[in-house]
Amino acid sequence: MTVGIVMLTHGDLARSSEVARYWATSGCPVVIHVDKRVEQKPYAAFVQSLSDLDNVLFSKRHRCEWGAWSLVQASQTASELILREFKDIQHVYLASGTCLPLRPVSELVQYLEERPRTDFIESATTNDVPWTVGGLDEERFTLRFPFSWRRHRKLFDGYVKLQRRIGVKRRIPMGLVPHMGSQWWCLTRHTLSAILEDPQRDLFDKYFSKVWIPDESYYQTLARLYSHKIESRSLTLSKFDFQGKPHIFYDDHLQLLRRSDCFVARKIWPDANMLYDVFLHQNEADTKRAAPTPSKIDRIFSKAIDRRTKGRAGLVMQSRHPNHNWENGMTCAPYGVVQGLTELFHDFEPWLSRACEAEVHGHLFSPTGVEFLGDQDTYGGCLYNSLEARDYNPKAFLRNLIWNTRGKTQCFQFGPDDTQDITWMMAGDPNASISIVSGAWAVPLFNSNRNFSELRKEAARLQKIEAEHIKILTSHYSKARVNIWTMAEFIEAPMEPLQTIIDSMGARSKRRLTEAPRMVDLTGFGQFLQNLKNQGMHPYLMGDFPVGNDPKPNTPKRRKPYLVK
User: Fold this and answer.
1) What is the pTM of this model?
2) What gap in Å lies between CA 83 and CA 60, rounded to an integer?
């Protein structure tokens, strides 16, 4: 008993000739179908290159097109020839010109000899598989598809819409239950000859000739009528991407292909010289006789598809710029945003850096400059403190800062006077930890020596901006970790909020805070707010500051050390 190979090819005839010779010299008869679109001169050279082999034949040629009935016709014509001319074959293996044997042919022959009545063909109903790409499941069997999906896309789509509108529903031949699967099968002589010699073949062919992509359903459906035993899987390793296009294997996939233990792989890049050299000249003693298990590498392909469609979290590559809200994470690591604390405390940034072991920047989105840690001109991967570059794409600026400093926690100050273009991104970023003391922007105004009419106008502007900022952060769209305190409740007991800020930024120290940074002098601040009210501006974000009762923070005093005897 031996195996016959039906090869469908349309290009790279030199590689097809090399692989066909390998099959034939290993004892497998080969019948080759060459697409009729291949010109006569290269076709004649291809035939001549294999003319010394008695077990290599060429079938009648058809003009083939992707997803068309002509592909089934090509396999039918070649299969009829191989069954007629080679009486001793018990299995027929359908392969393409880009397929490459991964294991010695003797192992494939032995594997099939041990399963003489088993057909290896992927065959499942449309309800059982998620393979279909393009929105046509059952409809591919109930509508007509006379137009090429690739060459006449508008006609294809328009005719589908028309049939849906008028309620067209083709009648499936009695006794058939449509199945789908990979077009690369290995069928027993009994099953394949029964399909090709069926008395109702004309009826079946006429029906499937108007099915969309019939090479993935013709044999898959009819094999269910005649097979003694079907293993619904292909012996050919063929992987597809998220668009339904086949993965192409290159030289650097050598170990991956070996790990699969499959007998044949598709689709091999014609210039993958190492793959062809290794697999077509391998020593049988070096191979392991294991069952083909392509599932062992499924995890790798799943990761590849995720990387291709989503990319790495927080990284937007030029070659894979995501659609809006389609990115795989806005940033790659947690970071902190602090608002209102530098206005309330002296030297707050150095204190916060020591307390939470983070790199604490100033106002990165200040309208007057980019305040990197230590007033550096460049930071983390050559991010430049250029207002033009930052404001051209503030989201990319923040995303690059977090990406370039992976492994270090970043924190920066923010306020209503900063550019607000970044607010929605921070609100929707689960990596953001945002802590706000609302109304603290009034402290610099309180300490300034400006005309009060200007102060009132500026206070109204800043309050309006901060109120909108807080509204966004507290909306149901927000995914960031947000802590908000009014200024009045914060300075009444600052230790607990400060501890919350430190904890939210993932500080490694487990010790509780015992001392807060030195607070600015707020004597007269309550009267300042009352003056704003008297001038017609209502400062509500600060909380309740009674006039004449200046804020006095309730900070714990450090006890003097004493000795216990």
Assistant:
1) 0.69
2) 15
